[in-house]
Structures are given as structure tokens and as C-alpha cells.
Amino acid sequence: MKRLLAGLTLLVLAVLSAPISVGAATDTAGGSVSLTVAPEFQHPCVGYSSVTLVATITGPSVPLELLHRPEGGDWADAGAFSYDELSKTYTISVTEPSAGTYEYAAVAAPGATGDIQPQLVLPWNVPGLTLAEDSASSEVHTQAGLSAALSCVKGGEVAFRVHGPGAATAPGPVAVTGLDVATTYTSDAEGTDTVRASYKICSDVSVGTCSTFRSNAVTHQWTLPTAALTLAGPSTSCVGESVTVSALVQEDESPLSGVVVDFAISGSDGSALSYTATSNSTGTASITYSRSSQTLDSVTATAEIPDASPDPVTADATVTWNACTLIAAIAPEDARAVTGSRLTETVTVVLDGTPAPGAQVELQEAMAGQPTLTLTGTTGSDGSVAFVLSRDFPGVDHLAVTARYAGSVASGTTTALWEPAAPASTPVSSLPPTPSSSTAAPPPAPPPPVTAPPASSAAVGPVPTSRAPAPLPSSSRPRPTHSRAPASPAPHNTRSASGAPKPHRSPARPLPPGSLTVRDASPLPGERDRVTGRGCPPSATVVAAVDGVPVGHTRADAHGGFEVGFVAPARPVGRHRLTATCGRVVLATPLDYVTSASSGGANGALPAAILVGLALMAFVVVPVLRRGFGTGGL
Questions:
Q1: Which of 236, 440, 489, 552 could form an S-S bond across to 564 if both were Cys, CB 3.0 to 4.6 Å?
Q2: 90 by DSSP, 3-state: which?
Q3: What tens digit of pLDDT does each residue of 387-419 get?
Q4: How far is the C-alpha of 581 from the C-alpha of 336, rounded, in Å?
């Protein structure tokens, strides 16, 4: 028995003398100790919390002792652990008398207080609560954030109390799981809330002692959303056109859809209009209307946005209705240019006499036998835009311009004559008149007749009208009858659409070189005629014109001869000039109109003596050369 007791004593002494490291260090026998605290007591409250520390030992089980000290102070014995055989753990209850940070270590009893490292650090604080908010103001129906900061934790919950418009939706209590507690709440009305938080804890040091700690007070401003209503649309328009006025509905600068907008329009002439529209997904509500007379409209848009404002929001604008006259003028009119060169035509657009910048202009260039060309442009600040034209072959371009501006449309027309350039390799000399020559080269086959262009045209707007060519007689409309005494009656010269005898035509003269002869020197307006001549450069383009207005064209043959069919244009009674231009050579002969397009009948007959004199008139044709190459003419 004595030997057994001696052995146990030696065993106990050996165990107690075995060194045990603190902080999970392993001793020579492989033993170690770890120290923890329950999670909910990481931040204990002075005077209210009794913290339970748990020690776990690996290796041989030995009695443990708890050492504690204020941070940076001296170690002191805080008491011995109790051992629970069921859970195989060592526990100890700890409380500290004052606030501060404390360090803890578990050592084998009896422990030394030498070089020991702390295994656990706990901050002990007196209870306290601080309330804060995410922002000082929020819009109604949105969420406001609250946060309560605790200085120590001992379970329980934090309660919130609200005084103000948000009281009905105040947040409920929030369970405490750490030092920070967060929640949100809202309000259905604008105004200011006062909010406080409270924290109730009961002491387990002094049983039955409970205290409530209250936070500071914070204020929260509840506001209505910012509603905005703006109008957009033209400030001026033309009578008879339509304008669109749009209202943009916004809430805090974001589009608001589904809002009904009322438009009230009051005219300076005493008239009144009203419309209703609903904003779409972009927040836009639009109406379109027009006026039939000049007036100044005051437009007011009204919308109700209950969530944003207790009162309707409004916006105002004005629209001035003018009796607009849009004019599109093209210059130069009836221009002349040489083929291969460039011709600049400038279109000027004015609205009620004021330049129209930004007007859309379209210019169409049409020539007989050629495809129509279309050019487009936009007027500048002076209301004008320039178009550069060019042709590689002679002829007459008919130019038509269309301008669009402020809902109005204007148009204008003119012509451009492209004259052939003289061949550089073929010198042209002046040709003496040879009226007595009776020899002429056979003329080439006559080309198809060319319809004469308008005598003149002008660029006009929608009110003035363009000048059009005089109407030409047709076989379905009877032509006036005339009675003119021929020099020698001939049966084949008597002709009339109505059965009456037609005046005798001057006979054609023999075609001498460098001359021009017209088949009928006294044509009726709208009647087909033919001019024959020679003296042009071989293969040159020939343009026939009456008083400078082109009526037909052809190409000279290899001997300089040509023949052009044309329709006699409408001209007043009297003598007119028929020319044939080929390069720099101009040949001329007179045309005598004895009746105009509007005269006719028996009352239009001239005295027989005058008619006889006209019939016997000899036509002397002299080649006329321009620019110093010859003289002559009428």
C-alpha cells in the first residue's frame, strides 16, 4: 500500500512539474491549453456582464488557473477553472470592475507569473448607444436608413421611437448580435421626424438590476419629389400649317409616364382651344394643331402629380401664326454659257422678305432628249445656296427649283442656253453676202421638230405665278383666216384650216453660200416652219432662235449647210429676227408677223396694198459674225 501511494505521489509530482505552454504551445509531453469566450460576449459591459471563458487542454488533464491583467499591466490570479467531466471542458466566470481592455491566459495551477503571453483580449466598456442616419432627408415613399452603434453587448434588442409624419411606419425592435444595429423606415407624408434609439440590459452581476440606455436624437426631413413640366415646340408658324407642342413630365429629373396633361390655348383674336394628352415612356405628352388666321397663341400645359406636389404643375409657351409668303428666286435668269464651261445658279429663299436659313432646296435640270438631273442643297445664313451646272453639248436647259421652309413650299423656273464652243482647229472667216447665188448644196434630212421653250420665266413663290409659253394652235382648233394678195397667184399657196383662202407665202430664194433662208417668212404663231442655210463650219452644231429664244437645233453637214425645222413662237405683229448660230458664226434673216396669236377673222385682214408689198419684199440675207469676225444683220 505504501508503495502504491508513493508511486501515485511521484506520478502527480511528475505531471505538475511538466511545463505547459500558453497560447497553444506544446510542452515536452505534448500538452497545450487554448482559451475562448462565448461569441455574444466579445464586448462585455462593465457592471452588467459576467463573461464565461472556456479552456481546452490537450494532453494530461491538470488543474488550470486563470491569470488576467489590464492591457500592459501585471498578471494577477483571477481564479481557478472548474472542470466539467461531461463536456470535458474547463470554465470560469469573469467580471471586471472598470472599463478598459483586459488580457487573459490559462496556466497550470499553481502557475507562474513570469514570461506569459496573453491568449485572449477583451474590451470592457460601460453601456452606450449612438444613433446615426444615412441621409438627413428623403423623398416620401422611399426608405430612410438608421444605424445604432453600441459600446458593449449583452444580448437583448434595440428599439426605435419616431415622432413626426413617419411615426406610422416607424421601424420595430432589432435584435442585438454585435456592436452595430441597422434598420430602415419610410413616410407617406412630407415633414420632419425626430428619431431616438434605446437599449435595455439586465445585469447578471447584480441579479434583478436592469437599465435602459437611450441614444442621441436625429431628425429626418421627408420631402416630395421635384416635379417639372416643360413645353417644347416652334415659336412661329405659317397660317394653314400644323405645329406640334410637347410637354415633358419629370419627377426628380426622371421621365414620368402615364401622367395626363391638359393643354389650354388662348389666341389674341379671342379664340380658345383645349386638348388632352398622356405622357409616354419618355415622359412626353404631345398635341398637334393648326390655325387658319393670323394670331398669337398662349399655350398653358397643366399636370397633376400627387406624389410630387399637392398642387398642379404648369408650363407656358407662345406660338405666333404668320401669313407666310415663301419665295424662291433663281439667278441669273435665262443664262447663256458655252458647253464645257461651268455655270453657277444661285437660289435665294425668303420668308416674308426675310432670308430663310436652313431651307431645303431642290434644283431639277431638264434638257430635251437627256435625263433629268436633280441637285439638292440647304440655304445658309443669308438664305441662299449655289448650284454649279455644266453641259458637254449644246441645247436649252429648263431649270425648276423647289424650296421648303417652315412648312411652306415655293418654286421658280428659268432656262440656261448652252452654246457650242467654236472648234479650235477650224478658223472661221467672215463670208461676203452673195444674194445673187442660186447654187446651194443639197440640205441634209430635216431633224425632228423642236418645241420652242418659254419666251421667258421668273422665279416666284407660292403666290405669284410663273410665266408660261403661249398656247400653240392645234388641228382641233380652227386658225384665223387671212387674205393677203400674192405677187402672182398660185393655187398651191391657197390654204386654210377653216376653208377660207390663206395668204400667199413669200417664195423661197435660192440658197447662196453664207446665207440663211426661211421657208415661210410670214408664219402664223404655232405654225411649223423651216430655215435653211449654209456658211457654218463643217459638222458644227447649229442653234436656231427667234429674238434670241432657241427654237431648234441641228448639225451642219460636211459643206457647212444645214436645215432646221421649228414651230413659230407667239410674237406680236411686226418684224422679228431669226438667227442661226454655229460657233462664232451668226446668220440672220427677218420674220414678219402680220397677225398675233389672238387676232384673226375677217377683221384681221390688212389692206391689200400692204400685203402685196410684203409678198414682193426681197429678203437679203447677210451673214453676221460676232466678236470681230464680220458685220451685217438687220
A1: 552
A2: strand
A3: 999 988 889 999 999 999 877 889 999 999 999
A4: 13
Task: Give CA–CA dist 376/367, Å, rounded.
Answer: 18
CB burial readout 105-142, b (16+ within 10 A) else e: bbbbeebeeeebebbbebebbebebebebeeeebbbee
In Å, how far are 125, 215, 218 from 130, measured between CA atoms? 14, 5, 10
Q: Give the Cα-Cα-Cα angle 237, 241, 242 (nearest 5 degrees).
A: 85
Using DSSP's 3-state secondary structure scheme, residue 483 falls into coil
Residue keyed to cell 423623398: 139
**How far apart (Å, rounded) are the C-alpha atoms in residues 167 and 426?**
108
Alpha helix ranges (H) inside 434-487: none
Residue 624 has pLDDT above 50, yes or no: no
- The β-bridge partners of 90 are 55, 83
The 10s digit of each residue's pLDDT in 126-156 is 999 999 999 999 888 889 999 999 998 888 8
Q: Are 44 and 34 in contact (CB under 8 A)?
A: no
Whose cell is 437679203? That residue is: 620
**Strands 137-139, 218-223: pairing kind:** parallel
Q: In whole angstroms, give the CA distance from residue 68 to residue 626.
A: 129
Lookup: cell for 355: 432670308
Classify strands 89-94 and 82-84 as parallel, antiparallel or unpaired: antiparallel
C-alpha cell at 8: 501515485
Residue from 398, 403, 416 nearest 460 by CA: 403
d(C-alpha 441, C-alpha 563), whole Å: 11
CA 539 to chain CA centroid, Å, is: 56
Check the CA dihedral 538-541-545-548 and report its sign.
negative
- Biggest CA pair distance of the chain: 187
Cell numbers given for 608: 391689200
Residue 229: partners with Cβ closer than 8 Å, 6 or more residues away: 247, 248, 249, 250, 261, 301, 302, 303, 313, 314, 315
Residue 447 exposure: Cα atoms within 13 Å on the Cβ side: 20
Written as one string, the DSSP assignment of 567-610 is: EPPP--SEEEEEEEEETTEEEEEEEEESS-TT--SGGGPPPHHH
Q: Model confidence over 561-582: pLDDT tens digits?
A: 999 999 989 889 889 999 999 8
How do the residues of the chain divide into helix, strand and coil, expressed in percent and rounded to 5? 5, 45, 50
Residue type, 24: A
Residues 589/578, Cβ–Cβ less than 8 Å? yes
Report the predicted TM-score, pTM, of the whole model to 2 decimal places.
Answer: 0.41
Alpha-carbon distance 409 to 67, whole Å?
102
Point out which residues pair with 575 in neighbouring strands: 592
Q: What backbone torsions phi and psi does residue 501 show, to the nearest 5 degrees?
A: -65, 135
